[in-house]
Amino acid sequence: MQRSSRILAACAAAVCLVSLAGCGRHSSAEHYYLVAANIKLPYWQSAAAGLDKIAGQYDVHAELRGPDTFDPQAQVEEFRYVVALKPAGIMVSVVDPKLMVPEINAAIDAGIPVITVDSDAPTSRRLFFIGTNNREAGRLGARALNEKLHGKGNVVFFTMPGQPNLDERLGGYQDVLGGSPDVHIKEIVDIRGQGTVAFDKTQQLLAGTGKDRVDAFVCLEASAGKEVGEVLRRANANDRVLIAMDVDKDTLDLVKQGVIAATVAQKPFTMAYVGVEMLDILHHNPLPSLGKPYGPDPFAPIPAFIDTGASLVNAGNVDQYLQAQKGAPQS
Predict the structure, then answer these.
(1) Which residue of 32, 56, 76, 303 sits 20 to 30 Å from the alpha carbon of 189, by its own alpha carbon?
(2) CA atoms within a 13 Å half-sphere pointing along the CA-CB vector of 79
């Protein structure tokens, strides 16, 4: 009987060791934050659901913060506010690296672990990045675009120049389209964080003919795709190609209707969920030094990049994504 008791005790201890959430490791006093911008977008609400999920499992506090609009300076101010709370860890999706890099470095100097999610700031001293391989996401969309255009046509991009993840996606498109000399990037439009800019611009561009005709529209962020799609739907412009980004319900519906040829899906829920997991590990197992450059260290105790994955959604698989959303956790 004593031997059996010892075995049961050993098994219980082993379960505690492998379970990140178990055996009293966590405390409701632990606070983790994700600082983004435009946080009312469905994309960020999915991330908020990821925070809620793991906060409930760990019995910790995890919160999405940031401006409701695309406002880089307001994001910096929100980040400073969070740093002043001295939390167990911070995630940040970087809108403007020039503004955010000094803030990240100051937080690291204050002893607060900071990781980037969704949009990186590799020149900062952030510990690592969790999110999409954005250059590969651009290549994924570009291959679908090239196939739809049959290697020929004028393309307009909707983006926000200077935001790292969007610039990387554009680079991925350019990688692929560079091999198609008859595909021309006619214009790169700065939507300034407002999907309505893409709506108005698309209405103007549809009037172009001859060498000014636009054959395809590519949206590198979440809000523009449904705006461009609505213009094309109203105009019955079935001869134009639209490649979108992300998988909110309106975007998926337009894929289902055939208005959007394809969209690239990311995993913001996973980014937030795994981000808290990693920050929790760092909180309970502190690094020898937050300021050490772990990137070039072959024996680093932390990764440089955690790829949460991206996939192409088109008419062939859109029903799977629509079905999955019916059971999606809500924030």
Answers:
(1) 76
(2) 30
